[in-house]
Amino acid sequence: MASDTRIRRIASILKNVPLLATLNTEEREKLAAKLKIQAVPDKHQILKQGAVGDEFFIITKGEVVVTRENEQGVTAELGRLKAGDYFGETALLNNTTRGATITANGSVTLFYLTRVKFNSLFSKNRLNVQFAKRNAVSAGNQKNLKYTPKMPANATKTKSAATKQLILKAVQRNVLFLELDRDQTMQIIDEMYRTEISEGVNAVKQGDLGDNLYVVESGEFHVFVKGSYVGTLGAGTCFGELALMYNSPRAATVTAVTDTAVWVVDRFTFRRVVTGLTRRKFDLYVQFLKQVPLLAPLAAYERRKIAEALEEFTYQSGEIVFNQGDVGDSMYIVHSGEAIVTITGKAGTTEVNRIQPGSYFGERALIKNETRAATITAGGNLRVLKLDNLAFQLLLGPLEDILKQKVESYEDVKEVASLATDMKKSKITEASRADSTHDVEFNDLKLIGTLGKGSFGHVTLMQHRRTKNTYALKAVNKTQIVQTGQQSHIMSEKKVMAAMNHPFLIKLYKTFQDNDRLYFLLEPSLGGELFSVLREKTFFSENTARFYAGSVVCAFEYMHNMNFIYRDLKPENLLLDSKGVMKVTDFGFAKDVSSGRTWTLCGTPDYLAPEIVAGKGHGKGVDWWTLGIFIYEMLASYPPFFDEDPMKTYAKIMHGRINYPSHFSKESISLVKKLLHPKAIKRLGVVRGGAKLIKKHSWFHGFDWESLVDMTMAAPIVPKIKNDLDISNFDTYDEDDEIMFYEDDGTGWADEF
Is 744 one of the catalytic residues? Predict the structure, then answer.
């Protein structure tokens, strides 16, 4: 009989297995109690690549080596797993061939469980709970939200130094504050107000929507989930932080068990402070770069790219930035304070200059790694912006080449031309169909059935009464758009879709509106969502995943060359047509970024890039991040940062630690790592070469990009579609749709729809 301590220890490991994350505590302990123990000698093969397996393993002692043999018969080591690691978890779902060989390196002790035993403990569908469709989230557009913090009458913003320190200590380790500098954090603290909550009163109630983060100054709260007590919060703790990201139902009820005092900040104030200071700082960085003559040949958008690569460093008085004779690899701009320049010669050390804010030094390091001609020391507290040569070259290439070429555009004109050629090569053209939609009126359309319902839209299949052509019609309630501050998003969606024509992007034919709704008349793709196919098959082979990932690469490459970003890639937003061709749909978060970075928090939690979570402003790099998540999910069946608790998901995203299943190939791990680089400026797709470098990555070795785009490549999965009216590949929905009557707000935001 397993001891309670051992069961709890194993259950805690099981909680970290994404595939088992939806099991509750009782179920995990039940599973832990049934695990068998096995001792494995040195060099013993626990799993063999290609063999069918039905066992899941947890290492409790020792180390195993993971290897994989490629098509040429060459075996490579993928990694090593140690105590606490696990492997073979997908065998709990179905008979799957092992993707790698796992061999004991020394004696190893394992816990293991067979699929038959697992199914005897739980329903066969028990693991499918986590596969529910994921809704996108958005913080809303501040310009459209008329929000005034609801401060109680007795509230105050006055704080002592000790109080500020208490709040700072409470929030500084919170994931939403990790990337904020001290100026941003202190300004948010300055905006917080104090209020009192009496004994027995709920600060927040489970299921209610909320806008506020709370920091406890005094008193005590009890936390309840579904009525059950789960913990206590006292002075110096905080709760409600998810509300600072977007309007989400509270996950717990927090009740004062004594008279309490709390400090409060709402989401809109938080986002305003973070966004405002980051914008101003970024604009200042760009202005600083304009003052550097060596960078004068750069175009404005190139300076913006470089501004994103600047890193802040602080030096205390007397601290050395670099020494005379050091090899130079970075230039510096003085943000605040003063830098003292000294030169040491035969006669001794002499001060030759003092560098003031806005000025720079060490710029020649961007051309050649020369030795430093002087020593730079902080005169008082010194804050500098550092630009290293490697980051510069990753983004723009060697500065020396740029100077010689007199500023050739970073955007590759040939690439745009080749994309246009790709469109001509496409065997599927919608030109005739698009022309026919000019005469389509809303009243000419007959409802066939519902294709999908989401947070911001209801999509139906419609048939034209005369021509019998079918269309997808997306309807969005105007009231809901205004309530959620999505006016700019919906107008951007129309603008972006109207401008694009690509075989892997759903086409927009026409738009309509009535008093209560906006309508998009779209190209139908009746093969259903890739989400449904992935859930049915659990995970894809690398060849299948390559087909869909390649389609996304081409779609994003096209969009980015038009300066559009997508921001909501996930299997739920990818449709299959009758031939199995993948189509990107739902452009509700797409945006023109010609003018530079954008700041709105939006996307799907599992797929959010760290720069979106941090609210630091973002650009095209977020799409390449989502591609990395997408590839991982196709190969693993779950996203890399999955957690039932959204804040834990965001913490994982910010910390960036990823566990790769043992069946992942070395090439797939390499590509995902490069796409999920925490710094956008060093992310594959963003670095110089753009999407072309992704296409050249070893994971795509031998992939025929031309046949993919002209659609002569056979799709790995071809859906069964009886005719143009067949909606059987989509989930069944209630046809009734609640009508939200709209009262015109007088702003005219939808006049040009």
Answer: no
pLDDT in tens, 247-300: 888 999 999 999 999 999 999 899 999 999 899 999 999 999 988 888 888 888
Q: CA 503 → CA 420, 426, 576, 588, 708, distances in Å?
A: 12, 7, 12, 19, 10
The SS3 assignment for 724 reads coil
Structure tokens at 6: 């051992």
Residue 13 pLDDT level (bands cut at 50, 70, 90): confident
Beta bridge partners of 69: 75
143 pLDDT exceeds 60? no
Give whole-number Cα distances, 556 to 123, 488, 564, 673, 688, in Å. 40, 21, 9, 19, 16
Which token pair is 432? 């005739």
**Element at 214 (helix H, strand E):** strand 212-218
Q: Are 488 and 598 in contact (CB under 8 A)?
A: no
Closest CA to 240 of 192, 204, 270, 279: 204
* 8 Å CB contact between 103 and 41: no
Determine contact, residues 680/395, Cβ cutoff 8 Å: no
Count of residues making up the chain: 753
DSSP state letters, 582-617: EEE---TT-EE-TTS-B---EE-GGG--HHHHTTS-
Q: Identify which of 31, 286, 375, 468 has the alpha carbon closest to the alpha carbon of residue 22.
A: 31
Instruction: Give burial (CB, 10 Å; 0-12/13-18/19+) of 383.
Output: middle
| Same-domain check for residues 226 and 322 | no
* 93 and 103 Cβ atoms separated by less than 8 Å: no
Rounded CA-CA distance 472/494 in Å is: 15
Q: At what angle do helices 25-34 and 4-14 cross, to 10 degrees?
A: 110
CB 597 within 8 A of CB 619: yes
Mean pLDDT value of segment 90-115: 83
Q: In this predicted model, what pLDDT tens digit does every residue of 391-432 receive, in sequence order?
A: 888 888 887 777 666 434 333 433 433 444 444 444 334 444
DSSP-derived letter for residue 73 is S
Do residue 559 and residue 675 come from a single domain?
A: yes
pLDDT 10s digits, 216-233: 999 999 999 999 999 999
Mean pLDDT of all residues belonging to the chain: 87
User: In this predicted structure, what is the pLDDT of residue 448?
Assistant: 95
Look up the domain containing 507 and give its range.
Answer: 426-522
The percent helix, strand, coil of the chain (3-state, each to 5) is 35, 25, 40
> Is residue 9 in a domain?
yes
Residue 512 belongs to a domain with what CATH number? 3.30.200.20
* In-domain check, residue 743: no
Q: What CA–CA distance (Å, rounded) separates 87 from 96?
A: 13
Alpha helices in 291-342 (DSSP H): 300-309
Please tell me the predicted confidence (pLDDT) of residue 414: 38
Backbone angles phi, psi at 63, to 5 degrees: -145, 145
List of residues 6+ apart from 411 with CB closer than 8 A: 561
The whole-model pTM stands at 0.83
Return the closest-CA partner of residue 498 out of 477, 513, 520, 469: 520
Could you say which of 85, 568, 643, 726 is catalytic?
A: 568
Q: Which residues are 480's β-sheet partners? A: none
Query: The domain that contains 396 carries what CATH number?
Result: 2.60.120.10
475 within a domain of the structure (yes/no): yes
pLDDT tens column, 482-529: 888 888 889 999 999 999 999 999 999 999 999 999 999 999 999 999
Q: Which residues pair with 476 in a beta bridge?
A: 518
Dihedral (C-alpha) 507, 512, 517, 519: value to the nearest 10 degrees? -10
